[in-house]
Amino acid sequence: MNDTTHRAIVDHHHFSSLSFPFLFAWIAFFISFLVCQTISSPLTDLVGGSPDWQEYSPGSAAEEGISKGVGNPKGPVALALDANENPAVAWSYQTYPQSFVYVMQWNGEQWMHLGCNPETHTDIVGQERDVDKIVLDPTDNQFIVSMDYYQNELRKFDGKSWNLWANGRVPDSIGYQFFTDIAFLPDHTPVAVYHRGIGPAFSHVCVQKFVNGSWEEFSSGSTAGSGISQSSEWGIIRPQLAPTSDGKIYVVWEQKNPDRYGVFAKQWNGSEWINLFAEATNRFGIAQMSAGISERAIVLDSNEHPIVTYHTGDPARIYVSRFDGEQWVEMGIGSASGDGLCASGRAGSNSIIVNNHNDHPVVIWQDTASGGLYAKQFNGVSWIEAGQGAASADGMVWGADFDAVMKSDGSVILAYADGENREIFVRKYVPPISSEQLLSSEVHVAAASVISIPPISGTPGSVLHIPVNLETTATITALTMDFSYDASKMSFQGIEKADTLIAGYVLADAHESTPGSIRFAAAPFTAPPITNSGILVYLVFRINTDASGTAFLSIDSLM
What we know:
It is a single chain. This protein has two domains: 6-20 and 30-429, 7 Propeller (Methylamine Dehydrogenase, Chain H); 443-558, Immunoglobulin-like (Sandwich). Helices cover 0% and strands 44% of the residues. The chain is built from no helices and 40 strands. The protein has a five-stranded antiparallel sheet with strand order 1-29-30-31-2, with no helix packed on it. Strands 19, 20, 21, 22 and 23 form a five-stranded antiparallel sheet that branches.
């Protein structure tokens, strides 16, 4: 799963709410030719949300969005990028007792329907299905949609219509197949993971691969018995996979064990599936308490290690954990403890994560109190708002079902359902270009000095990364710096570690006790005398108003 796509929906696949029919009739349906529809209207700002999350294209998040008011409430929503990084959105259009699946793509100039037409109820499949994933086939750059409704179904677009792909489904003779995630190995071999349901309380995580025209076990026992989950006693949902460039695979899922849900993970190391959690001692898997994940909650970092986001606790907080090759650790101080990514007193759920090679992932979740979508981005050390106001008050936008992808330039595309008719809206977030210049020089701090930093120039909405350079001839055993600034002109976003940190330094936390007052501390350490440290840390601020010609940051103490 290297297209960094994530989806969050209200769970409609819990076995506790299902009754299983004894017979299914599966009928092939003729798929229509391509129908195009142009969206044209002025770009509109997000009212009451973050101004940094703008419409992806004119009209894509205004009035009736890209779905244009056709159909009943829509969702789940899935999103993917083509080879040119143009987005495609798939969604289920639900009209009891049926649901249809539609796909639209941005071709660089307009949104167009791919082999479907909601106005005539001509969808891509012709029978009741819910969208699981949309992925790009690397062999020919065509989209594949995986769907399920007590049985998975796979269809691929050929430029005109949607046809059954890879024999149309991942077969399973033991039980029903729910949520199916598809990915491709480096040699382009398709791999599928799904959760197999046996009854209201019994389910397994199964993995298959498509070889020589048929699906088969990915490895010995990966579908037999309990599959790779090696348990059939409790409910398992939302399995998803992330393959690496050398053929390894990470799989993560949510599992009830026995009365609380946990988040569990395994790795295919080339010869066997190994646990990435202390199975014998931790019934919550990688979490420390009852936890759950969205339908797409895993990405890989630049070292091809997994990063997972999940909600945990009561009330639920949003956490992020990273596997460092040996154990699960926080990604930034507090990312998997305390309030996590949530502000104090806030709760959230259905978190999704996107990432690229820069390892500055963005996490989007639904705030429990407001129902709004919140977003934060990792800046290398801490999690900051991904856009002005994107993680406070009502968030960046209200949305139910949602999905996101990150492009290679770090910009994020968000698709979601909103409004009374749950129209499909599409927005984008382009992180501002950060300035690392403080007029003409860095901030050079001498021991026990109190300095005033020269005036800072910055336009409203821009982000400043202010480099701090420590100079001292003394042997240091602990380091604390107190900063003050004009909170009416800028807001503190966090700290960012320099690419090369001084030997012996252990970067700790920076917190804002009151608006305008920050304390940065390094954990106790002993280092030789330093005459010029190089950049110790970056202070990250967002400019709120015109700050040109105003001195508003000073270092009050250095200990």
